[in-house]
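A favour, since you know our structure tokens better than I do. Just paste the record in under my message, thanks.
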Amino acid sequence: MITMLSINLNLLTTLVLIGFLSLSRTSEAAPANGYSICDNTTTFTQNSTYHSNLNLLLSSLTSNATIDTGYYYTTTSSQDSNSAVYGAFLCRGDLTLSTCQDCVTTAATEAVQNCSSSKVTLLWYDECMLRYGNVSFFRKMNESPSAYFPNPLNATEPNQFNKLVAETVTGLVPVAANAQTGAKKFAMKQVNYDGFEQLYSLVQCTPDLSSTDCDQCLRGAIELLPKCCDGRKGGRVLFPSCNIRYESFPFYNLDTSTPPTTPPPLPPPPQLPGSVPRSQGNDEQISSWIIVAIVVSIAILLSLVGCLFFRRRAMKKNNVIQEQNVGTEINAVESLQFSFATIEAATNNGYMAPEYAMHGQISVKSDVYSLGVLILEIVTGKKNTNFYNSDNGEYLLSHVWRHWRDGTLLELLDVNLRDSYSRSEVIRCMHIGLLCVQEDPDKRPKMQKILLMLSRYSLSMPSPERPAFFLHSRTDPNMPSMTCSSSDQPAGNSLSLSVNEASITELYPR
């Protein structure tokens, strides 16, 4: 049994860790690699002067695709001014010269194939843009024709995500627009938007634009985001003179981008009290994933072990009842009397959710209760099974909740943590723990919400209600009688209990 349990623990931990690591590496659906617009209102005939000039222009663009700025504009003309062809390409600012040239070459080839007779053509790719026409567009800001591509995946918290996207891309506009004349008008940024996912953003203008025109073009593209990409995990708006893009996966070369930063409204993820300080960059992300995976896997394992223990205990209990030949049945909940020992045994030494232990009711919130107990034990340095306050007749969860109500939570902090701790982090962790052990399972947060609470200070949290099996103190003048709340009772209802002094003495102080 012990060997099987060890194997299951290793397997469970591995599966949960892989699942959480995969959250940041999930393959996202990106826009089509190539998108072309062929204006058929103005066409040319094969083997015409315009056709010859176009071939010369495409050849010139391809051969100059290794220019450092990633942008090149040229014109080919002849004695017939109506046969002049104007063209340009723009490569993404983070690309190598060879990648830029490959993209421009592909674009030139597909332009001839897809728009064989169009005088005005525009092609967009992930890596570059190529355009040509019979009218000069040099140093002119053009917002049409345009195209946009939303990512098919939805963000988990669309309103907050939309706000973060808008703030991030808007902040990149002056960086790109104010670049020196002739330099790349290009900016990109990586920010963290929850405990384990990143937002990657990019804006770019053609270098021939003035700062004012670039600023205007990018802001016009940003205004289209609510229309095209509201609540989506990624989006792309393409204008002839500029473009913007954001995704939840890296679509540009990270080694050429600015270091990941966190926007002012979203401070760095809080660190659990007692944990080892995290390193920067990828080490910080990996540490966060491992901590989350271990905590969640322990909670799941406790639930599985508790299920087996409960079944075994239930079988023993049935045997005892049969041997004693108990002839009466308890038909009304109001007649139940619980001792501390009964509560401790029924909740699997304090980790099993009471509604499951006492009534067999299991849900996704059962593991949340176990996680809450673990958090409170870690912060206080006390085990739920070994704690009993003889002065107030409290066990650990009710003791923590009473200090929360009185505003004295820091008095419960583990002495080993008092030399180095953050007051706000300690209170936040205990706040989350109390939310997890609330009497009503429906009011306990889901695991996904808990992850956000642990990683985002900007996320507001409700006040916790009393924990399950909260025992009122007989010495508290505001609570004259001892009552025990059952999780399946309506809000506000409680059961009157007789005080079992013998069972109280079974629990000893730490």
About this structure: Residues 1-32, 257-284, 325-338, 470-510 have pLDDT under 50 and may be disordered.
